[in-house]
Amino acid sequence: MKSTTWPTLGRLTDLRDEIDRLFESPLARTSEFLAGWTPAFDVYEEKDNFIVKAELPGMKREDINVSLHDGNLIISGERRSETKSENAEVYRAERFFGKFQRAVALPTSVAANKVQAQYKDGVLTVTLPKSEEAKPKQIEVNVS
């Protein structure tokens, strides 16, 4: 009977580690660097409001723009890079800088004059009150 020797678990782990290193290389993230960065958003609906939260760490309030256009909430801005010493040797650079723009399509109309935006601890929170026409209404049923 012929026996087959299987690779040890240690060799499989080494292979997995090598593959992980390959995907962590700068070339693996080239498309992200070319595209810039896109902040993460949470969008949810409450009874009378839509809420949009955007992660914008390291930004200044004056570098953030919020607007409404054709039923879309548009958040744009620029996260500026920090100045580095010319003598510094960079070992790893994973933070993205530059301009961004995201649009969120709103499912119903909102009261544009009542929209509020607050920036605190790196998170932008936009509260968009629903317009009166968009709010659910109870209709009384008459008996005849």
Report on this model:
It is a single chain. The chain starts with 8 loop residues before the first helix and ends in a 15-residue tail after the last strand. The protein has a 4-stranded antiparallel β-sheet, with no helix packed on it. A 3-stranded antiparallel β-sheet has the order 3-4-5, with no helix packed on it. It has helices at 9-23, 30-35, and strands at residues 41-45, 49-55, 64-69, 72-79, 98-105, 116-120, 123-129. The chain is built from 2 helices and 7 strands, in the order ααβββββββ. It has a domain at 38-81 and 93-129: Sandwich (Immunoglobulin-like), CATH 2.60.40.790. With 144 residues, the protein is of the alpha+beta class.
Main structural class: alpha+beta
Shape: elongated
Helix share bin: 10-25%
Which fold name corresponds to the CATH topology of one domain? Answer: Immunoglobulin-like
